[in-house]
Amino acid sequence: MPDAPEPPSRAVAFLQSFVSEIAKAMDRAECPNCSAHLEHIEQIGLTAGVCLEEKAREVLGSPRPMDRDHYADLIVEIKNQIGGRFSRASAEAGAVRVVNSRCPFGEQVKHAPSLCRMTSSVFGGIAARHFGYAKVELRQTIAGGDGSCDVCIYLDPQLAARNEGTEYRADGERLTSGNLTTLMTPRVHRRLREKWCPPPVGIGSPDAALQPIVAESAAMRDALRAVRIVAPTDVTVMITGETGCGKELVARALHGLSARRDKPMVTVNCGAIPENLVETALFGHEKGAFTGAYEVHHGYFERAEKGTLFLDEIDSLPLSAQAKLLRVIQEGEYERVGGKRPLRSDVRIIAASNREIVAMVDAGQFRRDLFYRLNVVPIAIPPLRERTEDIDALITHILRKLAQRYATAEKTLVQAARLKALAYAWPGNIREMENVLERAFIFAADARITDIDVPVTAPPESVPAWRTRKQQAAKQAEIDTLTRALRVSHGNVDQIAIQMGITPRAVRMKLKAQGLRAADYR
Asked: Lesser CB count within 10 Å: N end or C end of the chain?
């Protein structure tokens, strides 16, 4: 018997669902070829191009910034993943040409030729974002009865001037098209992206919940392994670690992987609540409970009902509030301040502390019985100086987020700056690193960040030669390992991730860092 076909990847499923939604929109349109509808299709295409590009990147592992060849591979991948039969064809220098013998929209395209506008805007929008300018010429179309499609994307304005087509230009977040009477503003772009490009990964899936966490070091991988195991339960968890090391991210992962993920997660900074208001903040108060209590106040426990309550800086709670918190955990009920009847509580509690809480218990500053109730599953997050393996991956992760936040091309640290980051102790941990890198990102004159504003504790020129040789040997060993894995798996990133015991995202980052492309081995 032939092997059963593998289910489509999340990227492919998203692309296919997108085509289905566009087709439904065309069916509902009263006038599919009127100018207003054509303009709407154009704007959807420009917005969708961002989402389609990201999904295709998951498959190809395309680099940033892209060159012309990678761009051609990407647009062919987009179309073929949603049912087309595209391939590259020869073109003049300064242009990319693709041909197609099967339309992703099927026979419907012959009755709605405006769907070709979607192809033009997706191809043109992606090119404009990467190269600043593009003109798309639809030389032949299946919709026009030609039997095949022939699309040429001109990236050179001088070459484009001699040919027909629709022009696309990018200025930061702002995209313009020759077919649109108005500019594609960032506000419209965001609104359409929310409507047409919902994230394909469920809110509680491992990819979504664990995506913000970088875990290259053994200590962090152990912590995430514990997160995956205990998240589906309702057990209380105590997360410990220094300020800025990512305790809240771990708490959000616990919530996102639990059955409560569709209910609220309420975060409380216990250290920020005045001592005389702690009980009111946590448990609420009844009308008339004290002077100024004009209405019933719902506390954090009520707001987190059926969900998760994250008590950060739990060590700051006064002893009186600790006693009431213990009662909630033990008996599952509490009373509002001034209340006369108990309220039932169905809340999963996650606590966090940046202090040595065991020492506080020994000193009588924290209730021993409450500590045992909270510390059923302890998860310790080591400081950044103790997991240097994560530093390089964190730098790449943070710089990528900054590029997305400021809608600019990605920037990289030069080797000297990276060595400086590795030598620094980062007393403020990840929070400090984010601030330092954001400052360097903003002031960098080009795509290369040559320095970061931290004290020099080990100048790059003083690094011993043996360390350099060790780093080079480790790099070569990683390249050899990745190359073998790519050959064996035929470029399947998910399979490599399972073999290596790391996340697919970590594999892609390693491939990018070593200049390897998974697509070359498929």
From this structure: N
The reported pTM is: 0.52
Mean pLDDT of 218-241: 91
Convert the pLDDT of each residue in 321-347 to its tens digit. Answer: 999 899 999 999 888 888 888 888 899
pLDDT in tens, 170-214: 765 566 776 654 444 454 555 555 544 554 444 444 455 666 788
516: left (phi over 0), alpha (psi -120 to 50) or beta: beta
CATH superfamily of 10-196: Trafficking protein particle complex subunit 3 (3.30.1380.20)
* H-helix or E-strand spanning residue 267: strand 265-269
Q: Where are the domains of the chain?
A: 10-196, 206-382, 401-449, 463-520
How confident is the model at residue 375, as a pLDDT? 93
Between 3.30.930.10, 3.30.750.24, 3.30.420.40, 3.40.50.300, what CATH number should domain 206-382 receive? 3.40.50.300
How deeply is 43 buried, as exposed, middle or buried, from its count of CB atoms within 10 A (0-12, 13-18, 19+)? Answer: buried
